[in-house]
Write a structure and sequence with these properties.
This protein has about 110 residues and is mainly α. Helix 2 runs antiparallel to helix 4 and helix 3 packs antiparallel against helix 4. The protein starts with 6 loop residues before the first helix and ends with a helix.
């Protein structure tokens, strides 16, 4: 019984390195410059900030102890954080997961899996 080797195991090391470089260059042509790990981390921070803005709005607390509810900027700032925060967090989460999937596919190609 003879074991079949994958194409990547048949290639010499310098050819595998060229293949890896070529795949990495194709993967580097992403339109979103933030790495996927940072994108996921930022999505968590933005989501927490947006939910926190809703709680501050409901409880009528000052923003960071500086801007009190009787200030005319209090409601617009909290509204901006609350209404733009959750869609932004969703976008960052989507881009982070998409970037992770692309990196995973690249690693699968480098390992010889299709």
């Amino acid at each position: 019984m003879k074991l079949e080797l994958k194409d990547s195991e048949k290639l010499p090391p310098w050819a595998r390195n060229e293949k890896e470089r070529e795949l990495a260059m194709n993967a580097a042509k992403s339109d979103f410059p933030i790495p996927f790990g940072l994108s996921l981390l930022l999505s968590a921070f933005v989501a927490i900030a947006a939910v926190g803005a809703v709680f501050v709005w409901v409880d009528k607390d000052p923003i960071f102890g500086v801007l009190y509810p009787d200030n005319f900027l209090w409601a617009p700032i909290l509204g901006f954080l609350a209404f733009t925060g959750l869609p932004s967090a969703g976008f960052l989460f989507y881009k982070g997961v998409t970037g992770f999937n692309e990196a995973s596919d690249l690693q699968d190609k480098l390992d010889g899996y299709n």
